[in-house]
Amino acid sequence: MAIRPRNTRNLSFNMASFSDLVFLLLIFFMLTSTLIAPSAIKLLLPASESRTMARQTVTVYINENMEYFLEETPVDIDALHSGLIIALRDETEGSVVLRSDHTVPVQHIVNVIDVVNDINNLYKTKHRVILATQPPR
Question: What is the pLDDT of residue 109?
Fold first, then answer.
C-alpha cells in the first residue's frame, strides 16, 4: 500500500509578477526620459523673469564662438536663410526659437531676426523669433 501525500509541490515559475515589474520599469524610464530636455549645444542662456511658452517649429543656436547652428547642424548666415526656408515651408505662423549664449553680441541675434523677417516678406508669412532664456539664479 503506497501512501501518497495530498499536497504536491508545483515547481514551475510564475512569470506574471515579473512581467508586471518589467512594464512598470519601462513606463518609469519612458516618462523620466521625456522630462529631460536634450540640448546638444551647451550654452549659457541669458537670465530673464518672463516666461513665454510656444510651440517651437525650429531652433537656431549661436554659441560663444559666434557660430550658427540650425538644429544641430553648423551653418553660416546664407545657409541659415535657405535652411530656415526649408524648415518653415509648411508653416505660415511658425516659431523660431533662438538659443543664444549670453556673451553673443546683439548683432548676431539681429542677423537671425533679419533672416526670419526676410522670409516673412518673401513668402507673406508670420513667423516669429523667440529668444530662449533661463530663470535667474
Answer: 95
Render pLDDT for 29-74 as a digit per residue (tens, 0 to 9): 888 776 665 556 777 777 888 776 677 789 999 999 999 999 999 9
Element (H, E) at 8: none
- Rounded CA separation 27/88 (Å): 34
Tens-digit pLDDT profile for residues 94-116: 999 999 999 999 999 999 999 99
Number of domains present in the structure of the chain = 1
The DSSP bridge pattern shows strands 95-100 and 58-62 to be parallel
Determine the length of the chain.
137
CATH assignment of the domain containing 75:
3.30.420.270
> Which grid cell sits at 40?
546638444
Classify residue 122 by burial, with Cβ atoms within 10 Å: 0-12, 13-18, 19+: exposed
Core vs surface per residue 30-51: b (16+ CB within 10 A) or e: eeeeeeeeeeeeebeeeeeeee
